[in-house]
């Protein structure tokens, strides 16, 4: 019996297995609106065998996009652009659809990674980014504007409006993006947050805005649908955010009703030194799970079926999320099921692909002879 292919329930959401397609920016939206690329990409990976597909970091306001090509959910047009994609996914796949709600903060107005990723100046079509403090991500970059109270209220309201739009679109779950050096992580980390008001200084103060946003999203989304959070568990920089603070944060989030913690790392400082290797962030998911009892999702260089199986079976995390391995092998979940003796949903158009040596990979399917 495979642990990876054992069902799990997050609040009211039943998932057939423990595999999630991690959120992945596609930099292919126009004015925040999903494009034909999203139709292809989302439909393809919704058939990967993973129980959940998570839609990429989706900006709650236009100025919260990382790049001009980032997906948004902040007006009727961005909502309308996602609707036919979700309708198609519902028709063809049984995967649950999660959406990652995000705000880039001081990392907004950047070029895409394949254009170099540097900030786009206002004079070249960019916009002025905002962050907790007027400290740039990289030395020499123009500093962001520091949010005042009205700005923070605007961002909270934008998260609420996006969560309401997500519900109208039938999204099954929301992940609040509090990782990778974007806005909420900027508030948590002393590297980006030097505020002297109630949102800066002590750990309690630095957690305040991310917790307010979490509460706002939780309140705006139906009670039976889960809301989790992705966090960077360490900045990988001396004196920055670390796993001890992450565990405190996760403990607070538990009191606020969080349904999972997706344990990632890094992104707030170019000085980070990340010891990359297979499953390098799994110990964070394990530490949070052990300290708080919360469900955790492990992510980062999880590429092999048996590796994923071991993570879940040994109780290091409740689920695994895969990003690059899913792009490389968009049927990763099928192949993992074949290797581990699990079952996945497949559309009838593809049933005949099942290798004759494989027992019931797709459950009860019928095969014609023609
Ligand atoms: C193309 C690409 C886009 C990404 N976009 C996002 C994103 O929108 N939100 C996020 O939290 N992480 C994002 N990530 C990080 C992944 O979700 C994941 O945490 C990371 O790639 C490590 O997992 P992996 O080794 O399975 O790729 C992105 C990664 C890739 C490769």
Topology record:
Elements: E1 8-10, E2 13-15, E3 19-21, H1 36-45, E4 52-59, H2 76-92, E5 96-102, E6 130-131, E7 145-146, H3 149-168, E8 173-178, H4 183-188, H5 203-220, E9 227-232, H6 243-255, E10 261-264, H7 282-292, E11 296-299, H8 305-313, E12 319-322, H9 324-328, H10 332-340
Parallel strand pairs: 3-4, 3-12, 4-5, 5-8, 6-7, 8-9, 9-10, 10-11, 11-12
Antiparallel strand pairs: 1-2
Helix pairs in contact: 1-2, 3-5, 5-6, 6-7
This protein binds flavin mononucleotide.
Quick rundown:
This protein is of the alpha/beta class and 370 residues long. The protein contains 10 helices and 12 strands.
Kindly describe this structure.
The chain is of the alpha/beta class and 370 residues long. The chain has a single domain, classed as Alpha-Beta Barrel (TIM Barrel), CATH 3.20.20. It is 32% helix and 14% strand. The protein has an eight-stranded parallel β-barrel with strand order 3-4-5-8-9-10-11-12, surrounded by four helices. Strands 1-2 form a two-stranded antiparallel sheet. A two-stranded parallel ribbon has the order 6-7. Helix 3 packs parallel to helix 5. The radius of gyration is 20 Å and the shape is globular. The protein starts with 7 loop residues before the first strand and ends in a 30-residue tail after the last helix. 50% of the residues are buried. Bound molecules: flavin mononucleotide. Flavin mononucleotide binds next to strand 4 and helix 9.
């Amino acid at each position: 019996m495979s642990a990876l292919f054992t069902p799990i329930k997050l609040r009211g959401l039943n998932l057939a297995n423990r595999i999630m397609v991690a959120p992945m920016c596609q930099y292919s939206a126009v004015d925040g609106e999903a494009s034909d690329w999203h139709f292809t990409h989302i439909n393809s990976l919704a058939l990967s065998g993973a129980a959940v597909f998570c839609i990429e970091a989706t900006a709650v306001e236009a100025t919260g996009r990382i790049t001009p090509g980032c997906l948004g959910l902040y007006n009727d047009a961005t909502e309308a652009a996602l609707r036919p994609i979700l309708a198609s996914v519902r028709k063809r796949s049984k995967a649950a659809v999660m959406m990652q709600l995000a705000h880039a903060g001081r990392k907004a107005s950047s070029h895409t990674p394949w254009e170099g990723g540097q900030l786009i100046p206002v004079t070249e079509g960019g916009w002025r980014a905002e962050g907790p403090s007027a400290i740039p991500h990289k030395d020499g970059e123009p500093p962001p504007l520091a949010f005042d109270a009205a700005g923070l209220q605007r961002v909270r309201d934008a998260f609420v409006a996006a969560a309401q739009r997500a519900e109208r679109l039938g999204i099954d779950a929301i992940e609040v993006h509090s990782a990778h050096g974007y806005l909420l992580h900027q508030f948590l980390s002393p590297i980006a947050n030097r505020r002297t008001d109630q949102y800066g200084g002590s750990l309690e103060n630095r957690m305040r805005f991310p917790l307010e946003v979490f509460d706002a999203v939780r309140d705006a989304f139906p009670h039976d649908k889960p809301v989790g959070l992705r966090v960077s568990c360490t900045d990988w920089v001396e004196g920055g955010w670390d796993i001890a603070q992450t565990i405190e944060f996760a403990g607070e989030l538990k009191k606020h009703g969080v349904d999972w913690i997706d344990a990632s790392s890094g992104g707030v400082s170019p000085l980070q030194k990340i010891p990359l290797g297979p499953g390098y962030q799994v110990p964070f998911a394990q530490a949070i799970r052990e300290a708080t009892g919360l469900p955790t999702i492990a992510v980062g260089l999880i590429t092999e079926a048996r590796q994923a199986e071991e993570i879940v079976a040994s109780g290091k995390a409740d689920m695994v999320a895969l990003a690059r391995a899913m792009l490389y092998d968009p049927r990763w979940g099928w192949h993992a099921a074949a290797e581990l003796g699990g079952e996945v949903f497949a559309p009838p158009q593809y049933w005949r692909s099942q290798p004759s040596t494989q027992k019931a990979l797709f459950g009860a399917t019928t095969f014609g002879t023609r």
